[in-house]
Amino acid sequence: MLQKKICMVGAFATGKTSLVSRFVSSIFSENYHTTVGVKIDKKTVNFQDKIINLILWDLYGEDEFQKVRMSYLRGSSAYLLVVDGTRKNTLEKALNLQSRVEETIGQVPFIMMLNKCDLTDEWEIDAVEIDAIKQKNWIVMKTSAKTGQGVAEVFQTIAEKIMDE
Fold first, then answer.
1. What's in the keyword line of the UniProt record (predicted)?
2. Distances in whole angstroms, Cα of residue 69 to Cα of each of 10, 19, 76, 101, 159
């Protein structure tokens, strides 16, 4: 059985923990819990007749007071860059984090997740900004940890990208 490490990175309160909970356990909680350090979960997926154990590292969110420990990223097969669509500054943080992650572990597959698509009327990120990111040939997918929209598709897509490497 293959095991692949995937890190969840992004600013604080973008929904990283909720996305992992939705994917692994099909649950969503309205209660906000700050991740301290790293939380590790596992989910087995099937891809082209192969069983893959996805080891999901939910890294604490980056803010002005704490920087993501880049050592947590070592050994990653991929990462998910999580942005909160209702907070434009989380996009700027994600763009900065992406280059730092790439400097640390090199070019591995990643997907930018625009989370909280159930709240699009409150979004601060517009289509022009999303299109600019897609122009970089990045995969950008909209998700909602609350409703589950797009969550399984992101993890399936990242598993495919890992297996294509």
1. GTP-binding, Nucleotide-binding
2. 12, 21, 13, 10, 24
- Structural domains in the chain (count): 1
Full residue range of the structural domain in which residue 17 is found: 2-164
Distance from C-alpha of 160 to C-alpha of 157, rounded to nearest angstrom: 5
| Token output for 83 | 């942005």
Q: Which residues contact 136 (CB under 8 A, 6 or more apart)?
A: none
Residue carrying the six token digits 């993501």 = 68
One-letter amino acid for residue 66 of the chain: Q
What confidence tens digit (pLDDT) does each residue in 20-45 have? 999 998 878 776 566 556 889 999 98
Assign residue 91 the CATH number of its domain.
3.40.50.300
90-127 CB burial, b ≥16 within 10 A, e <16:
bbebbeebbeebeeebeebbbbbbbbbbbeeeebebee
The pTM of the full predicted model, rounded to 2 decimals, is 0.90
Residue closest to 41 by CA, chosen among 59, 28, 54 = 54
Question: What distance in Å separates the CA atoms of residue 158 and residue 65, rounded to the nearest whole number?
Answer: 30
